[in-house]
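Open question from group meeting: does this chain pack into something compact, or does most of it stay loose? Before anyone orders reagents, we agreed to write out a predicted structure and look at it together. Recording both the input and the output here so the notebook holds the full record.
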Amino acid sequence: MPLSGLVSVSESDDFRRVFETANQLDCRADCCEGRKPYGFYPGEKGVVERMRALRAEPLGFDRLAAKLNAEGFRTRKGTPWHGFAVNRILSRQRVRARAR
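Structure tokens returned:
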């Protein structure tokens, strides 16, 4: 038996209104799109460009991250870079470039 038969029409309408209102509030707070990719906010594009320039050199991701840290670059949270994060960012950028 479908669950819709167990709920009266007015209760389902109330639930739908509450759910839609919550969604609208989330979207107004700019929360409905999820976390923005690195490079979205001002100042981050320069870091991504520097990552690409360093990647052109024969450096592994851990050494690339160490070089970014030595140059004073920090993550969005202000923590030092790690190779896995640099790898993820550059891989995502590469995928987005292919999709265009």
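Observations to bring back to the group:
The chain is about 60% helix and 0% strand.
The mean pLDDT is 81.
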